[in-house]
């Protein structure tokens, strides 16, 4: 387990406390519903999902009940305990599987050449903000997914306008612009805030950051399509100013690109 994850586990809630909190706030319920809608639009019906940072299994259950098979991983034993209860019937029926290894085992274990691959890796409510080495994690996602694999991740927006009213945002703004991210130790879960350019470069050469979506139900029809990162890199971040979360869609790069590390991506201004 990396240091950030270890800190998180020390301070985190039990699965039941987490479920109570995350389901009691209206904006969180709307964010989850928007994430579900996006995954249902992107994933092939009846396909295979892998839920990274699955927590108590709310999304695993939701998607398995809609015909998907779901592999899942979470580093926190208390979350896994809740997950196993919450999804017991689906696990018994073979629709959901939970990986209970340590984080180090999870990222370094060789994925079998012949084993089933996920169509989409999903990661809801910011697990990617809790991982220090995202490059290593994207290499794992590359191994877990099939040829047209995608990653759909809900991450904390560093451009959220409400956060810009707070002193911690301004204390870290210069670092975010120069380094692409900053680390917030905080009294709750310590986490990284990352700019789009930082996600784009850390996912390469395994995945290309393709689209950004607002982390709430679409306001206008065009919001549902998201914004293409390659086409309008300079202004993409504007779409992430009105919600606490932003949804990122990554597309898998060809295997030879992943091996040679040979692809560049426009990330100016993100
Ligand atoms: C805010 S919760 C989100 C849980 C769930 N995805 C949801 O939608 O409710 C973040 C989750 O990320 C998990 N997490 C943190 N670091 C992790 C790591 N290195 N590997 C896997 N899971 C991790 C935590 O244990 C926690 O369950």
Give your account of this protein's structure.
It contains 13 helices and ten strands. The protein is 41% helix and 21% strand. It is globular, with a radius of gyration of 18 Å. It starts with a helix and ends in a 10-residue tail after the last helix. Mean pLDDT is 89; it is low at 1-10 and 261-268. It has a single domain, classed as 3-Layer(aba) Sandwich (Rossmann fold). A hairpin with a 6-residue loop joins β6 (181-184) and β7 (191-194). Strands 3-2-1-4-5-10-8-9 form an eight-stranded mixed β-sheet, sandwiched between helices. A two-stranded antiparallel sheet has the order 6-7. It is of the alpha/beta class. It binds S-adenosylmethionine. S-adenosylmethionine binds next to α1 and α4.
What is the compact description of this entry?
This protein has one domain: Rossmann fold, CATH 3.40.50.
Task: Give the topology, please.
Blueprint (H helix, E strand, L loop, with lengths): L2 H9 L3 H10 L1 H17 L5 E5 L5 H7 L4 E5 L3 H10 L1 H5 L3 E4 L3 H6 L9 E6 L10 H11 E12 L10 H13 L1 E4 L6 E4 L1 H8 L3 E8 L6 H5 L1 E2 L4 H4 L8 E8 L2 H6 L10
Parallel strand pairs: 1-2, 1-4, 2-3, 4-5
Antiparallel strand pairs: 5-10, 6-7, 8-9, 8-10
Helix pairs in contact: 8-10
Bound molecules: S-adenosylmethionine.
């Amino acid at each position: 387990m990396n240091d950030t994850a270890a800190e998180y586990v020390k301070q985190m809630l039990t699965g039941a406390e987490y479920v109570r909190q995350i389901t009691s706030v209206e904006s969180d319920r709307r964010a989850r519903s928007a994430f579900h809608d996006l995954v249902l639009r992107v994933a092939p019906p009846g396909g295979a999902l892998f839920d990274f940072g699955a927590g108590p299994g709310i999304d695993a259950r939701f998607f398995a009940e809609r015909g998907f098979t779901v592999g899942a991983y979470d580093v926190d034993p208390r979350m896994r305990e809740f997950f196993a209860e919450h999804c017991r019937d689906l696990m018994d029926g073979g629709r959901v599987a939970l990986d209970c290894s340590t984080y180090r085992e999870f990222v370094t274990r060789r994925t079998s050449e012949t084993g089933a691959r996920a169509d989409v890796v999903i990661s809801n409510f910011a697990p990617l903000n809790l991982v220090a080495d995202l490059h290593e994690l994207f290499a794992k996602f590359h191994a877990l997914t099939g040829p047209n694999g995608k990653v759909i991740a809900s991450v904390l927006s560093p451009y959220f306008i409400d956060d810009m009213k707070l002193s911690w945002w301004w204390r870290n703004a210069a670092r975010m612009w120069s380094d692409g991210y900053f680390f917030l130790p905080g009294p709750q879960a310590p986490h990284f805030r990352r700019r789009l350019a930082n996600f784009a470069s850390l996912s390469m050469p395994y995945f290309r950051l393709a689209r950004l979506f607002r982390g709430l139900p679409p306001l206008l029809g065009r919001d549902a399509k998201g914004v293409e990162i390659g086409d309008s890199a300079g202004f993409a971040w504007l779409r992430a100013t009105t919600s606490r979360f932003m949804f990122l869609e990554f597309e898998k790069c060809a295997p030879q690109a992943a091996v040679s590390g040979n692809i560049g991506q426009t990330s100016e201004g993100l």
